[in-house]
Amino acid sequence: MDFLLGGCAATCAGFFSNPFDVIKTRQQLHGELMQRNGQTTVPASGATATSNTTNPYSSVVRSFRSILRSEGVLGLQKGLVSALAFQFAMNSVRLGIYQTAENCEWTRGETPAGTLLRSIAWGGLSGVVGSTVACPLYMVKTQIQARSHGKYAVGYQHRHTSTLDALTGIYRTHGIRGLWRGYPGIVTRTAIGSSAQLATFSTCKDLFSQFDWARESVAITAFAASMVSGFFTCVFMSPFDVIATRLFNQGKAPARCRCLRRIHPLIPVSFLTPGTGVDANGRGLLYRSVVDCFTKTLRAEGLHGLYKGFVPNYWRIAPHTILNLTFWDQFKAWRDLYYG
């Protein structure tokens, strides 16, 4: 029951936070590996290019306007099916494991510091298991949310028509391993984010429960704890969220480009497949790993690059944390009331 309640709570929250998730994804991919003065570096060939286009996603308000202008209201809910499926799959496992650990008092230490450390450990472990299960859905969600047209397009543009089309197409082309491409990125992201979210949420709930106003309502306590939890989650997770988005959105080289590469191996990859960042075998060249993505982003874009999309990410994480954990606590209260 704990697993089902966790998934349902996250799905309810995901519907309201998805527009900010779309904006966050677009901001994280815009100007990828481009220096703030407009110069860009291409690791595969060492070539440079310039970009003078105005950033349509320079702020949350401008992002809303750009998406509404180019894609209409439905553009703000792009990737909703895969986003909700990801939330249910990941959080049913994540929150279910964490609640089981709390029920068994495995998160309780002999001191407050010990309790915090155990909560962080169980939060991270539950996040790793949950993200492992839901990894393909997160990849599809990212690729669908990034898709647009003209000057509004960012990153590599995958041509998925639906979540099912994306999953079957990736499996047909790259096999089961293709569905978990970029897995290290989401594991790192979710382990850190889950540790910060669940540990701070539990600690704040225990702290607030000492006050009369918090003991009067489960919803108010959960809301206050979620506000604090959402902030810390965003601060610690944002750089790894950028990395996960970029790892998942890397493209694959078409067969024609791979043939040309075999004929003349000195042809720059960026010339054959602009913007895809792949080698002759379709493996990621732009980013080979989490560490590689981190260092290249930091070198080209500075610390600002690792915190791209921070504002919409907070407006996504904070309401999502509030709604997710508030729904979760409320569902558990109803379960205890009606099912004992």
Automatic annotation (TrEMBL):
Domain of life: Eukaryota
Location relative to the cell: Mitochondrion inner membrane
Keywords, ordered alphabetically: Membrane, Mitochondrion, Mitochondrion inner membrane, Repeat, Transmembrane, Transmembrane helix, Transport
Membrane topology reported for the UniProt record: Multi-pass membrane protein
Solcar repeats: 1-104, 114-207, 217-334
Protein name: Mitochondrial carrier protein
An annotated GO cellular component: mitochondrial inner membrane
Primary localisation category: mitochondrion
Family affiliation: Belongs to the mitochondrial carrier (TC 2.A.29) family.
